[in-house]
Amino acid sequence: MNISPWKKFYLPIGILFGFLLGIIIGFFFPLFASNLKWLGVLFLKSLKMIIVPLVMLSIINGIGKMGNLQTLGKKGFYVFLYFISTTMLSVLLGIFLTIFLGFGDIKPSITEEKVKPIQLQIVDIFLNMIPSNIFDAMSKGEILPTIVFSILLGGTMITQGEKAEEVFRIFSVLEEAIIKIVHLILWFAPIGILGLIAGKISEDSDKFLRDLFLLQYYARNVLVGLLIHGFIVLPFIYFIFLKKNPYSYIKKMGVALGTAFSTASSSASLPVTIDCVENKANIRSETAGIVLPLGATINMDGTALYEAVAAIFIAYVSNVPLDFYSMLLIFLTSTLAAIGAAGIPEAGLVTMTIVLNSVGLPLEGITLILSIDWFLDRCRTAINVLGDTIGAAIIDRID
Ligand code: ASP
User: Fold this and answer.
1) What span, in angstroms and rounded, lies between the C-alpha atoms of 140 and 160?
2) Are 185 and 47 in contact (CB under 8 A)?
């Protein structure tokens, strides 16, 4: 699908403009900014509206285009290899960086207890994959069960050969129509992003800045780690596999990354991510249609890195020394916690209980990092989405 030059410039420039204006209005005119919140909600709701049908159609059609279970199995294997290795690399980076940089000389104490964190077990990650009622899961916008069901449906449909062709054809028409809806929604993206950013910043910018100061070393470690992973490690992997300039690819993903930052949700950004990867970078739809929905739910490099840094930080403020075995546990459970986190705002904060439990750290530690989490969440979501898009480009190479 060709993008008109007007749209080519309108979107990146419009999003950047909406973004900057959102920050200015949010900080300097908080009252006015809170009146703009609804614009962000409207944008978010429009994106969420199409996620479930888009996920189903893109996965089923992707499998249909592959044509056989062998190709699906082979690609699936490489997708998981890419997901797990980049997630682990990211956690390792977070751990080493934190050991190297430390947490400076400010040691905040865990005092207030604002939320009672939800206890989450590792088995819940697997249980959450299978819905007891697929329509119930879809109506609640639960992406992972929708993906599992779509893979099963697409996989069994291709085993029916010619009989299924007509259904695949109808599904392709529907998918194209949904992508057209994405394009319509995107016209509204700059205003929606302005509403999201202005509304969020207006909430309590003073408290945010105070807490950011108190947690500056923790935030620095997360942000430096995310930057290194997103702009050095992932581009390097891209270059190794594709021998092409990774940064021009990342530039094409700008609108998806901007949406990820503004919505703090890999899932809500999914329609835009699919659009960027397929239509701007010309990645085949059978690859993008499968790798991206899966990636949005289970491949979260940014979240994984953040989980590890946060756990080490909570150990530091709670005066709990971490030996090699504890670090190993943090490494493994951060990987799992990132896989288990849904692609929604601050999901990583909930799955962090898995990491904290594994090394006996106080769950109340989460309340300490809560106030600045909305900001770190946006940054890690952008890196999560970046990891998915780079994965789609690499997997597309495999036939
Ligand atoms: N908000 C993140 C995402 O949607 C998940 C998280 O780390 O909280 O990718």
Assistant:
1) 30
2) yes
Per DSSP, the residues of 276-298 read IIIIIS---HHHHHHHHHHHHHH
User: Residue 259: what are its φ and ψ, rounded to 5°?
Assistant: -65, -40
The CA 48 to ligand 1 mean position distance, Å, reads 15
Rounded-to-integer distance, Cα 190 and Cα 193, Å:
5
- The sign of the dihedral angle between the CA atoms of 237, 243, 248, 249 is negative
Residue 26 half-sphere exposure, CB side, CA atoms within 13 Å? 23
The residue whose CB lies within 8 Å of the most ligand 1 atoms, and thus the one to mutate among 380, 383, 385, 389, is 380
The DSSP secondary structure of 306-367, one letter per residue, reads HHHHHHHHHHHHTT----HHHHHHHHHHHHHHHHHS-SSTTHHHHHHHHHHHHTT--TTHHH
Cβ of 271 closer than 6 Å to ligand 1, yes or no, is no
Question: Tokens 């119930």 sit at which residue?
Answer: 136
Give the residue, by CA position, lying nearest to ligand 1 atom 1.
345
Is residue 300 lining ligand 1, measured as CB closer than 6 Å?
yes
For the chain, list the domains and their CATH numbers.
Answer: 12-396 (1.10.3860)
Residues 326-380: tens digit of each pLDDT: 999 999 999 999 998 889 998 998 888 889 988 989 888 888 888 889 999 999 9
Is this model's pTM higher than 0.85 or not? yes
Q: Show the tokens assigned to 304.
A: 């994984």
Contacting residues for 52 by C-beta, under 8 A, at least 6 apart: 138, 141, 143, 146
Tokens of 295: 């990636």
